[in-house]
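worker-3 :: picked Flagellar hook-associated protein FlgL
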Amino acid sequence: MRISTQMMYEQNMRGVTNAQSKWLAYGEQMSTGQRVNRPSDDPIAASQAVVISQAQAQNSQYATARTFATQKVSLEESVLSQVTTAITGAQSVIVEAGSGSLSDDDRASIATKLQGYRDQLLNLANSTDGNGRYIFGGYKTESQPYDSTGTYSGGSQEITQQVDASRSMVIAHTGDQVFNSITSNATKEPIDPATGLPGTQETDVFKMLDSAIAALNTPVAGDETAKDAAQAIVDKTSRGLGNSLNNVLSVRSELGTQLDELDTLDSLGDDRSLALTQQKSDLIDVDWNSVISSYTMQQAALQASYKAFTDMQGLSLFQMNS
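worker-3 :: tokens ->
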């Protein structure tokens, strides 16, 4: 077999080119800190890294969702804390109204106090967040849920938020659930002698207060029948406010549990983020000891290839015959 000058030239050029390509590849790994810079570097690792990147993006989205949920739940709990104070204040006024020695003027004065708590509760029921959206309107956040009469016109469904892959939670209750409901273990109304059944139970806190205010503003001096009827309304309102308070406390308990759960999910999300980052690093990041060693060795090999190429040029038949 004849070995031509052209063949030797091409072989040496290939050796130099290959050595230079490997040296540049190690240099790129050192500059980027990644062993896999394109799918062709390691197709399997590259495809697995894509899957991990998608998991990281999803985990980040859930972290953002939890931040939003925490803000919403914390805001509702703060408002309900004020609602609790207002209902407790109204209860104390109702106890005062139960005294049988009150004059009509005293009763009217108590009605005024009760009206103040009623207006305070209505204002709280129409609370908004920092963006002007109504907290207790369900998904109808753009319109005021309660009118001046205390009639609810908000949404019928509470707002939920997906806060993790398998967890969705309520982050905003409707006004109906807070102000127009009572718990299953609420105090029952006394038995009605005429029917033998418990009396009709009021669940709307605004109707409770309105009925008591109207009864207290009605003069009863000298009319025992009217006084007894008014007292019955006051007593019913007292029971109703107790039931409403228990309902609000129940919602607050749920919110507190959710805040604790969000903290736990945040902690788990942080751990998941660290694990995913480590998995991705194991797949595509460089082993610095290995790549520096390989870079140095390849640099020496490249220099040797340059020298061999230069020396081989001196073996040209043209130069040997000159």
